[in-house]
């Protein structure tokens, strides 16, 4: 299906996360934090665990300072005091271990729960969006959103959030302890802070750009693979392997380069911090050493100070390492938020029509409808068609005439621009979509099969339909003998693309679905196009039995499929140009006759 450029651009914008205003970013953050709200008590518990673990960690050098200044350097041989200090040291180490363990487990559990919920809601949201959305968005990009963007959010809670709490608090504690130990030395250490802040700000925008580029390129790579896998049969049939491989290589290479650049930037950023940390330690060792010589501070204080300044750089380094994760998280948050804010264009009426499914007759009225996929194009113009209950209508016309669009409008995958479509006199816009889709049974050229058994696929996981009903339905459409030949019969597992079943067998399964769900209207869109003539015969006989008592609309390029219809509608450029029975249309010697002769291999000038 064609995608207009504007739509593709929109897809790319969502994928890249570019052009996000501060307001939107804040809204995205609020939205994500909204998912954390129900876990408030767990976050408070995490906060206290972290607090206790840090306090236990940071008091350890202070104990050593006491031991050095009170005992070791003063010659005080109070061994029992040293033993008590040793005992407290051990206790602190155990406390730190216990609370860190608890905090990590709690955070993992909470983070995973939040992300699982977001993923669930996102999938639910996507499944409610309309076809026009899927026309605009690459399935590959959507796969990235559901899988890796939500995973990145997980990192936000488990890494970034943890680092912000743990390392932020560690920094505050260290600063307090340093000022408590010696305000002058602490003052010198604080000179380093603005330098660190400058480096961090300088890298900020650069890192964000690098990260966005990597994400966009990954998204393109995934989209390419997803779309290629879907069309693998075509790739092989038309020997496009080399061409596709080249295109893949090009995307792969550009992702590889973006990744390298991101890694290089990261390493440079981290190493700068290491150098800065070592220089600061050297500087303070010099200043502090001089102070010890001048007897203005004790040696234990210098020991504790140097230990703290080393520990001081660890949290800064950690936070800076989380910087790139934070960048990716903001991009992912923005993209997910944008996706969540896309509203379904087609919504149920607030006061819907009450429909009794068992009383549906199947009359269809297309009342002077007009439709286009975008504002600047018209695919169907002023089409007026009225179909009686139980009538079988064949719809023919050349490629692009608007036949499938007519069916999509009936199923309300899109809404008409002008006019209305009615079923049994009710405007389909007033019928709840769920009810509407129970009224219509759609059989497409490539019937979609879910991962599951044949029984699951026929009854569409509806447990209220018994396996016996499924077997009866399959027997009714003539699929029973085919299924009996399979190793596990009705319990044969099918995959998404129905591997192991022929196109005809897949089609028969979709007919059995119709029998099971009993929709009053049957729509077949090129359902026999992919079948050889022998299987087509089988499917045609199934159609005969299934269409009995149902209003049936059949789109077919092969005119042999629809010759027996009660009425044939001939479409050209979004309009009905002829209508009537096969014989009547032939007698008209018009467009249908041209199409018919053409399909018979007797080409008439200007037929298509
Ligand atoms: N999802 C879409 N987005 C934009 N344009 C579309 C979309 N689907 C179809 N079109 C365009 O609308 C027109 C009618 O398409 P439609 O699929 O209804 O024709 P058709 O008669 O069923 O053709 P075919 O026999 O090839 O299936 C074509 O020009 C097509 O390119």
From TrEMBL:
<feature type="transmembrane region" description="Helical">
    <location>
        <begin position="160"/>
        <end position="179"/>
    </location>
</feature>
<dbReference type="InterPro" id="IPR017871">
    <property type="entry name" value="ABC_transporter-like_CS"/>
</dbReference>
<keyword id="KW-0472">Membrane</keyword>
<dbReference type="InterPro" id="IPR011527">
    <property type="entry name" value="ABC1_TM_dom"/>
</dbReference>
<dbReference type="InterPro" id="IPR036640">
    <property type="entry name" value="ABC1_TM_sf"/>
</dbReference>
<feature type="transmembrane region" description="Helical">
    <location>
        <begin position="79"/>
        <end position="102"/>
    </location>
</feature>
<dbReference type="InterPro" id="IPR003439">
    <property type="entry name" value="ABC_transporter-like_ATP-bd"/>
</dbReference>
<keyword id="KW-1133">Transmembrane helix</keyword>
<dbReference type="GO" id="GO:0005886">
    <property type="term" value="C:plasma membrane"/>
</dbReference>
<dbReference type="GO" id="GO:0015421">
    <property type="term" value="F:ABC-type oligopeptide transporter activity"/>
</dbReference>
<feature type="transmembrane region" description="Helical">
    <location>
        <begin position="43"/>
        <end position="59"/>
    </location>
</feature>
<dbReference type="GO" id="GO:0016887">
    <property type="term" value="F:ATP hydrolysis activity"/>
</dbReference>
<keyword id="KW-0812">Transmembrane</keyword>
<dbReference type="Pfam" id="PF00664">
    <property type="entry name" value="ABC_membrane"/>
</dbReference>
<comment type="similarity">
    <text>Belongs to the ABC transporter superfamily.</text>
</comment>
<dbReference type="Pfam" id="PF00005">
    <property type="entry name" value="ABC_tran"/>
</dbReference>
<feature type="domain" description="ABC transmembrane type-1">
    <location>
        <begin position="44"/>
        <end position="328"/>
    </location>
</feature>
<keyword id="KW-0067">ATP-binding</keyword>
<dbReference type="InterPro" id="IPR027417">
    <property type="entry name" value="P-loop_NTPase"/>
</dbReference>
<protein>
    <submittedName>
        <fullName>ATP-binding cassette domain-containing protein</fullName>
    </submittedName>
</protein>
<dbReference type="InterPro" id="IPR039421">
    <property type="entry name" value="Type_1_exporter"/>
</dbReference>
<dbReference type="GO" id="GO:0005524">
    <property type="term" value="F:ATP binding"/>
</dbReference>
<feature type="transmembrane region" description="Helical">
    <location>
        <begin position="185"/>
        <end position="207"/>
    </location>
</feature>
<keyword id="KW-0547">Nucleotide-binding</keyword>
<feature type="domain" description="ABC transporter">
    <location>
        <begin position="364"/>
        <end position="598"/>
    </location>
</feature>
<feature type="transmembrane region" description="Helical">
    <location>
        <begin position="281"/>
        <end position="306"/>
    </location>
</feature>
<dbReference type="InterPro" id="IPR003593">
    <property type="entry name" value="AAA+_ATPase"/>
</dbReference>
């Amino acid at each position: 299906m064609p995608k207009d450029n504007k739509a593709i651009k929109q897809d790319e914008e969502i994928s890249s996360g570019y052009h996000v205003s501060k307001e939107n970013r804040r809204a995205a953050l609020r939205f994500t934090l909204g998912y954390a709200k129900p876990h408030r008590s767990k976050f408070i518990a995490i906060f206290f665990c972290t607090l206790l673990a840090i306090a236990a960690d940071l008091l350890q050098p202070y104990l050593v300072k006491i031991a050095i200044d009170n005992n070791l350097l003063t010659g005080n041989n109070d061994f029992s005091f040293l033993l008590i200090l040793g005992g407290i040291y051990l206790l602190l180490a155990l406390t730190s271990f216990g609370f860190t363990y608890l905090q990590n487990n709690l955070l993992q559990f909470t983070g995973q729960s939040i992300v699982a919920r977001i993923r669930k809601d996102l999938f639910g949201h996507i499944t409610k969006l309309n076809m026009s959305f899927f026309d605009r968005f690459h399935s590959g990009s959507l796969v990235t959103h559901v899988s890796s963007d939500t995973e990145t959010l997980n990192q936000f809670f488990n890494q970034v959030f943890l680092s912000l709490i743990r390392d932020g608090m560690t920094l505050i504690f260290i600063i307090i302890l340093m000022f408590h130990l010696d305000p002058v030395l602490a003052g010198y250490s604080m000179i380093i802070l603005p330098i660190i802040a400058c480096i961090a700000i300088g890298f900020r925008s650069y890192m964000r750009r690098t990260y966005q580029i990597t994400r966009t390129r990954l998204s393109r790579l995934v989209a390419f693979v997803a779309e290629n896998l879907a069309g693998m049969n075509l790739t092989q049939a038309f020997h496009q392997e080399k061409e596709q491989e080249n295109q893949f290589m090009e995307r792969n290479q550009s992702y590889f380069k973006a990744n390298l650049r991101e890694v290089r930037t990261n390493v440079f950023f981290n190493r700068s911090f290491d150098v800065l940390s070592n220089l600061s330690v050297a500087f303070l060792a010099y200043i502090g050493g001089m102070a010890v010589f001048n007897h203005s501070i004790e040696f234990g204080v210098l020991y504790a100070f140097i230990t703290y300044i080393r520990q001081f750089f660890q949290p800064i380094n950690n936070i800076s390492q989380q910087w790139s994760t934070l960048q990716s998280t903001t991009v992912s948050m923005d993209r997910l938020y944008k996706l969540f804010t896309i509203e379904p264009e087609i919504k149920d009426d607030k006061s819907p029509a009450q429909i009794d499914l068992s009383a549906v007759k199947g009359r269809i009225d297309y009342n002077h409808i007009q439709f286009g996929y975008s504002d600047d194009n018209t695919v169907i113009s002023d089409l007026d068609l009225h179909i009686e209950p139980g009538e079988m209508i064949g719809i023919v016309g050349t490629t692009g005439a608007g036949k499938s669009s007519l069916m999509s409008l009936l199923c309300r995958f899109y809404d008409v621009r002008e006019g209305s479509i009615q079923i049994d006199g009710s405007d389909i816009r007033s019928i709840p979509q769920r009810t509407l889709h129970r009224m219509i049974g759609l059989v497409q050229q490539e019937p979609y099969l879910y991962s599951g058994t044949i029984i699951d696929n026929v009854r569409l996981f509806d447990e209220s339909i018994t396996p016996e009903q499924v077997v009866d339905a399959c027997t009714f459409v003539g699929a029973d003998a085919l299924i009996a030949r399979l190793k596990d019969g009705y319990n044969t597992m099918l995959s998404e693309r129905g591997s192991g079943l022929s196109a005809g067998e897949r089609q028969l399964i979709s007919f059995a679905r119709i029998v099971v769900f009993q929709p009053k209207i049957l729509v077949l869109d090129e359902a026999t196009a992919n079948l050889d003539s022998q299987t087509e015969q089988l499917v045609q006989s199934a159609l005969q039995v299934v269409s009995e008592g149902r209003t049936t609309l059949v789109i077919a390029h092969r005119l042999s499929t629809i010759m027996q219809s009660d009425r044939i509608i001939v479409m050209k450029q979004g309009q009905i140009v002829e209508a009537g029975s096969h014989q009547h249309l032939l007698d008209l010697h018009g467009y249908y006759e041209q199409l018919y002769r053409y399909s018979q291999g007797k080409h008439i000038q200007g037929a298509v």
